[in-house]
């Protein structure tokens, strides 16, 4: 049993819901930090199941399948923070979470290498027509031929989205002698001998292998459709391990049908099955020259173990001392530990408010009026919200919390210890 200040929740009362079969490293880390009230499920949940469960939960951990929509979040009365145990955060309505004062954490590079390795392996296999030859052999056909089979050496790898994964992929591909070109909306420092293409069209026209590594945004929705497939080299290889919504999947099927594209590897789909028990439907089923994988680009033992530890650590840090460093939708504050067991007599209060003028002044005035001494104060804001962390004498914490909750513009206020 964890002892808590009478205004803060004991750790064993803090409910944590983990979905989508997170690696045991996440639970180990949470338990190590004193959190024992953990429910861990192998699958994601439907909207109605989520609405029912989330009402009671203080922290939730998900991967890419769980949709935390505005509607679901509006029922999350006790939710303190969200952990995305992956890179992508598009499955969460980040604005809705921000408006509710709920930070969202992810693991921005724990599975980067795993994705880059998979993509490179697929590029090599596709350049040699291996998926097709293997499929035929499984059916008893002997297809010994060098036609259309080429080395990777000297070929142009066109990377769309030169971020963490795109850069890793570029470095790996250069070790094989590939020439790396990339297209990104930002100007990026090219690693090795990579070269930035001025436009998407110019990249598509020169690449032997096109690989997508952009996030899901309004801008990237169907960014590769019929016109972009037409702009590619005849017989190009196409790989998507980013998000399914980035590619018009029917246009890809057509490009494969008419042999414009010689082969493809697709890991992500516009609609993905909710669990391993559900059937996978796709217009790409049945093409021997297409590698289809069930969104496992980042699913390696190493990546999942690292992600479990990384995101669980971010959640416990936010819960234990208020640090919001690397939150994707929330002002980032990195805080020193303020407790020395048995020695410190300060309490830490967290105040999340709409970013409007005068909030800090009002807090300081209210505390001054009640002779509440501030030992330390940290403030960070973004376009929508402000996040203030205040250390005060523990004896004043109850009064201070009461005052904070009354400040105009408050979204939520809580006390840590
Ligand atoms: N298949 C998997 O299992 C798997 C695993 C990890 C990540 N992902 C996906 O891969 C994506 C990329 O991951 P990352 O870590 O490299 O992200 P990142 O944020 O480091 O890089 C993304 C890059 O894309 C660029 N970009 C954004 N919009 C663009 C546009 N419209 N046109 C061109 N470039 C654009 C950005 O400027 C950035 O350089 C993630 O968002 C995630 O959705 C999939
Ligand atoms: O593990 C997952 O479900 C998602 C993996 C990947 O797409 C990511 O965004 O990191």
Automatic annotation (TrEMBL):
Pathway recorded for this protein: Amino-acid biosynthesis; L-serine biosynthesis; L-serine from 3-phospho-D-glycerate: step 1/3
PROSITE patterns: ACT, D_2_HYDROXYACID_DH_1, D_2_HYDROXYACID_DH_3
Record-linked InterPro entries: ACT-like_dom_sf, ACT_dom, AHAS_small-like_ACT, D-iso_2-hydroxyacid_DH_PdxB, D-isomer_2_OHA_DH_cat_dom, D-isomer_DH_CS, D-isomer_DH_CS1, D-isomer_DH_NAD-bd
Domain of life where this protein originates: Bacteria
Tagged with keyword NAD: yes
Family annotation (CDD domains): ACT_3PGDH, PGDH_3
Entries under SUPFAM superfamilies matching the protein: ACT-like, Formate/glycerate dehydrogenase catalytic domain-like, NAD(P)-binding Rossmann-fold domains
Pfam families, A to Z: 2-Hacid_dh, 2-Hacid_dh_C, ACT_AHAS_ss
EC number: 1.1.1.399, 1.1.1.95
Catalytic reaction(s) noted: (R)-2-hydroxyglutarate + NAD(+) = 2-oxoglutarate + NADH + H(+); (2R)-3-phosphoglycerate + NAD(+) = 3-phosphooxypyruvate + NADH + H(+)
Enzyme class: oxidoreductase
Domain ACT: 348-417
GO function terms (MF aspect): phosphoglycerate dehydrogenase activity
Keyword annotations from UniProtKB, A to Z: NAD, Oxidoreductase
Annotated Gene3D superfamilies: 3.30.70.260, NAD(P)-binding Rossmann-like Domain
Task performed by this protein: Catalyzes the reversible oxidation of 3-phospho-D-glycerate to 3-phosphonooxypyruvate, the first step of the phosphorylated L-serine biosynthesis pathway. Also catalyzes the reversible oxidation of 2-hydroxyglutarate to 2-oxoglutarate.
Family: Belongs to the D-isomer specific 2-hydroxyacid dehydrogenase family.
Protein name: D-3-phosphoglycerate dehydrogenase
Organism: Colwellia marinimaniae
């Amino acid at each position: 049993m964890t002892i808590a200040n009478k205004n803060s929740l004991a750790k064993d009362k803090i409910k944590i819901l983990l979905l989508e079969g997170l690696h045991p490293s996440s639970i180990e880390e949470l338990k190590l930090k004193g959190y024992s009230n953990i429910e861990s499920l192998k699958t994601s949940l439907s909207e109605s199941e989520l609405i029912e469960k989330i009402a009671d939960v203080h922290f939730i951990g998900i991967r890419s399948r769980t949709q935390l929509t505005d509607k679901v979040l509006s029922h999350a009365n006790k939710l303190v923070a969200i952990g995305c145990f992956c890179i992508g955060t598009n499955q969460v309505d980040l604005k809705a979470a921000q408006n509710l004062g709920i930070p969202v954490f992810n693991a921005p590079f724990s599975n980067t290498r795993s994705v880059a390795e998979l993509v490179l392996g697929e590029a090599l296999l596709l350049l040699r027509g291996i998926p097709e030859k293997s499929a035929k052999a499984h059916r008893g056909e002997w297809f010994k031929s060098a036609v259309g089979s080429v080395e990777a050496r000297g070929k142009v790898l066109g990377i769309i989205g030169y971020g963490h994964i795109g850069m890793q992929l570029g470095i790996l591909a250069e070790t094989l002698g590939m020439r790396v070109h990339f297209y990104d909306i930002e100007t990026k420092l090219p690693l090795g001998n990579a070269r930035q293409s001025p436009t998407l069209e110019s990249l598509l026209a020169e690449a032997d292998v096109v690989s997508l590594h952009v996030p899901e945004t309004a801008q990237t929705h169907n960014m590769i459709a019929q016109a972009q497939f037409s702009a590619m080299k005849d017989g190009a290889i196409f790989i998507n391990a980013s998000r399914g919504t980035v590619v018009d999947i029917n246009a890809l099927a057509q490009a494969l049908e008419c042999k414009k594209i010689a082969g493809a590897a697709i890991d992500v789909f516009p609609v993905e099955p909710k669990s391993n028990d559900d059937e996978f439907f796709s217009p790409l089923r049945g093409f021997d020259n297409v590698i289809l994988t069930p969104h496992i680009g980042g699913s390696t033992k190493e990546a999942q173990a690292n992600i479990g530890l990384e995101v669980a650590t971010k959640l416990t840090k936010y819960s234990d001392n208020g640090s919001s460093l690397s939150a994707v939708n929330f002002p980032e504050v990195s805080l020193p530990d303020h407790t020395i067991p048995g020695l410190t007599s300060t309490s830490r209060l967290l105040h999340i408010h709409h970013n409007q003028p005068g909030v800090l002044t009002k807090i300081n005035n209210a505390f001054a009026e009640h002779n509440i001494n501030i030992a330390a104060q940290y403030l960070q804001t973004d376009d929508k919200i402000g996040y203030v962390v205040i250390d005060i004498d523990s004896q004043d914490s109850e009064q201070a919390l009461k005052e904070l909750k009354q400040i105009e513009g408050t979204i939520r206020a809580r006390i840590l210890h």
